[in-house]
Amino acid sequence: MTSPAPAAQLAQLAQLNVATLSHPLDDPRIAPFVELLDPVNAAADGAPGFVWRLVGDGAADATGLRPAGEDVIVNMSVWESPEALWDFTYRSGHLDVVRRRREWFERHVEAHLVLWWVPAGHRPSLDEALERLADLRANGPSPRAFTFASAYPAPDGIVGAVR
Fold it and tell me: Per-residue b/e over 101-117, b at no fewer than 16 CB within 10 Å?
């Protein structure tokens, strides 16, 4: 007799991160960040629990997309669980980029990262993501829009990751 297959994953964690550039993306002062894009994105693509990330048409990343302003770049991805996203963000080579962010980006005065649950297989649009960020900024954390520090579990009956 074989063991039953694990329950299908019903929800995944989406994230949007926005960053205001301190100089244009083609400025030499931003070059170290630009040089890190490909290796960091490759690391994300291969990270345990990674599902999907936003890229521009014909591009390897999303830096050409500017839905939040000409000087604001976006990063959006979907992960199997908050733990998978946390591990990539803070327990991988990505942490070196996080530590250097002040070299390339303005200090944020309002929320710049938002997390929310999506049905497995759903790829959020930028409009959806920006609406979640606006909700977090206007109303604070809720099951609709939250942060690592104010995380909410997947809605009842929806698992965040296959275990």
Answer: eeebbeeeeebbbbbbb
CA geometry: angle 114, 81, 65, nearest 5 deg: 40
What is the rounded radius of gyration, in angstroms, for the C-alpha atoms of the chain?
16
CA geometry: angle 127, 129, 132, nearest 5 deg = 110
What is the C-alpha separation between 37 and 86, in angstroms, rounded?
19
**pLDDT per residue as tens digits for the range 60-119:** 999 999 999 999 999 999 999 999 999 999 998 888 888 899 999 999 889 999 999 999
**Rounded to two decimals, what is the model's pTM?**
0.88
From the CB of residue 47, how many other CB atoms can be counted at a distance below 10 Å? 18
The span from the first CA to the last CA of the chain, in angstroms, equals 21
CA distance 147 to 84: 14
Burial of 13 (0-12, 13-18, 19+ CB in 10 A): buried
HSE-up of residue 13 (Cα within 13 Å, Cβ side) = 26
d(Cα 73, Cα 89) in Å, to the nearest integer? 17
